[in-house]
Amino acid sequence: MSDTTEHPSVCRFRPARPEELRVVYDMQNVPYREQIFAADLPPFEEFESSLAEAIAGGTQKLYLLERDNIIAGYSQFFIAEKGCEIVVWGRWLKTLMFASLKVAFDVLGAEGIQSYVRRDNKRVMGAYTHFNGRAVRRELVAIRKGGILGRIAMVGHVIYQMTCEEFREK
Predict the structure, then answer these.
(1) Is 39's pLDDT higher than 90?
(2) What percent of the chain has pLDDT over 90?
(3) Distance, CA of 108 to chain centre
(4) 163 partner at 20 to 30 Å CA-CA among 77, 91, 105, 137?
(5) 70-79 and 152-163: which strand pairing?
(6) What are phi and psi of 2, to 5 degrees?
(7) What 3 state SS string does the chain have?
(8) Exposure pattern of 120-136 as b/e (b: 16+ CB <10 Å)?
């Protein structure tokens, strides 16, 4: 007899290895990237050296979400004295967000988190609201598109904050 039962999906959230920075870069290297991030994506070599230096210096952490051994998303943590800013990107957003918040509070020991979310990114705004994130401020930021001589655009952001206690209440 053959086994026809399906095996459940396996998700892992783990620190990224240096050789996986290309995967993170490729995830961001999409036509709609400028709708999510305020800055242009630099060439890979610059991206890789800058991120590797920040990780080695302890000012950033990078975690990957895997589902069935396929990388489906990542979280980048910008470390501050008592908290961190989190940037998330990928599929299964609420799973990614939950894992990111657990790491921020339980592994990194953050007292709180903050995140700048573009106002038109309803998906991420909804995820922060789902996990008790507070929209504390809205702001317009001038960004330059297309390099140093590119056009200037105004981009709206919503700043979300959350304490460890607020996360645990959920």
Answers:
(1) no
(2) 63
(3) 15
(4) 91
(5) unpaired
(6) -95, 150
(7) CCCCCCCCCCEEEEECCHHHHHHHHHHHCCCCHHHCCCCCCCCHHHHHHHHHHHHHCCCEEEEEEEECCEEEEEEEEEECCCEEEEEEEECCHHHHHHHHHHHHHHHCCCCEEEEEEECCCHHHHHHHHHCCCEEEEEEEEEEECCCCCCCEEEEEEEEEEEEHHHHHHC
(8) eeeebbebbeebbbeee
Closest to 97 measured CA to CA, from 69, 71, 123, 121: 123
Distance CA 165, CA 162 (A): 8
Dihedral of alpha carbons 78, 45, 18, 117, sign: positive
Tokens of 126: 């909804």
pLDDT at 10 over 90: no
CA-nearest of 150, 165, 155, 159 to 124 is 159
* Matching residue, tokens 């036509």: 31
Pairwise CA distance, residues 22 & 17, whole Å: 10
CA 24 to mean position of chain CA atoms: 11
Q: Is the pLDDT of residue 37 over 80?
A: no
